Here is the input.
Amino acid sequence: MALLAEYRCKATPARRVVEVHDADAYLSDDEAMAAARTQVVAGNGYHLYLLSLQPDIDVEVAIRVWDVAPDPPAEAEGHVPVRIESDTGALVVNRLEYGPAGEMTLPRPGVYAGHAWWENRQATADYYATTLGHPTDDTFEDHLTQAWNSPPVTERYVLDLAHLREPEPVDDEEL
Here is the structure.
């Protein structure tokens, strides 16, 4: 297994969701987002939704492209198989409330498949809940900002993908 490309960025999971999508895939998918509530990561082919348990502490999103996608690590909190098509050859990491957090140029356009896995999801949610337990006073907002900017663990989502095939051709008559 050879790592062909890797991209990492931080993203705030506004409404507890971070989205990864093809650069030209703008329409959201309510069914895929609902599936993420039970699967943690779910998609519709052009979008993947990563569901955090908290809305304010940045999470790390890593997209790694391999010649053959590896199995998720044994110590991962969870994992699911994923597939995403990118006609443009670019994947956007998007924060629903705030816009793009970053963009990865893939080695080539196409359909990619592999696994999404995550770690420290529950630990970050537990930490988030304890930060809200601070007494409400004039320093409460400063306390939250400091706590959320320096969590003791990093909630992390990793997409380990391999190129499967070329993208489906677009029929210009359908447009």
Observations:
- The radius of gyration is 17 Å.
- The chain is about 20% helix and 40% strand.
- Residues 121-131 form the longest helix (11 residues).
